[in-house]
Design a protein that fits this description.
single chain; alpha/beta; TIM Barrel; 8-stranded parallel beta barrel; 13 helices; 49% helix; globular
């Protein structure tokens, strides 16, 4: 079974450096537990791909296989966990994921908990196991060094409480940046899916102001597949952008194709 050592990982993929330099990176979201989908997307030019274990049927075993495929395609695999659970985070990191995206981080203590679960002592509290990440015991020392310095923790800002506590959340050592979850943020304001509502726009303005004041890595999950929305977020200064997700890319292309051939058939019938 092919595995990648920590030294190869540092040489091949250095997403952490790009994030620390506030370079623009664009990734996407995987909700279908298919290695083929992961391989297709990883070979499409994304800087990183997030395996979604919050809103999908993807299991831990499937997540490990997707992580392996993404990494072997020279793309950085991240995992959006379902809960800020130290045991879950430990097991995800042991699959070889390069980092985690943690939903619903609303205060400083929750951010600290996520970082601690990702890093080994004395930095954090992650338990030691010998699995794929450590090359099944062969490269623990190399992985330990990589993990402490290069593993990635992105917190999701998707509740108004998080917006109000943003400065203290982003001041936590080990938090590499944040990702705005627009749907849940709008829902917490009582206007789910209304992205033009004044209360949501005010919240986004506050997020932008605080992140620029702190010089933090700012991210946003753009749901539509149309690239004009990504371009808009780039213009607004976001540097860590998730562009849509597998099911929408697939579904939109299928509907586009069926619409075209249905129109051709209609013209021929007339």
């Amino acid at each position: 079974m092919v595995n990648i050592t920590s030294k190869q990982k540092n040489k091949m993929i250095d997403l952490k450096t790009k994030l620390s330099r506030r370079e623009l990176t664009i990734g996407s979201w995987i909700t279908i537990g298919s290695p083929s989908i992961a391989e297709i997307m990883a070979n499409s030019g994304f800087d990183w791909l997030t395996i979604d274990m919050e809103h999908s049927a993807i299991t831990l075993n499937v997540a490990q296989n997707l992580t392996r495929v993404i990494e072997l395609c020279h793309c950085s695999p991240l995992v959006r966990i379902g809960d800020n659970d130290p045991v879950l985070i430990k097991r995800i990191m042991d699959t070889g994921a390069h980092g985690i995206i943690v939903p619903m981080i609303n205060n400083r203590s929750e951010a600290e908990r996520a970082v601690a679960a990702t890093k080994y002592p004395p930095v954090g509290m992650r338990g030691v196991g010998l699995t794929r990440a450590q090359k099944y015991g062969y490269d623990f020392e190399g992985y330990k060094e990589w993990n402490q310095s290069n593993s990635i923790v992105i917190v999701q800002i998707e509740h108004i409480d998080a917006v109000n506590n943003l400065e203290e959340i982003l001041s936590v050592n080990g938090v590499d940046g944040f990702l705005v979850g627009p749907y849940d943020l709008s829902a917490s304001l009582g206007v789910p899916g209304d992205f033009d509502h004044s209360s949501l726009l005010e919240a986004l303005d506050h997020i932008s102001y605080i992140s620029k004041q702190l010089g933090s890595l700012s991210g946003y999950h753009v749901i539509p597949t149309d690239f004009c929305f990504v371009e808009e977020k780039i213009e607004q200064g976001y540097q860590f952008i998730a562009h849509s997700l597998d099911i929408l890319f697939l579904g939109n292309e299928c509907r586009k194709s069926t619409s075209q051939w249905k129109n051709i058939i209609k013209k021929k019938i007339k």
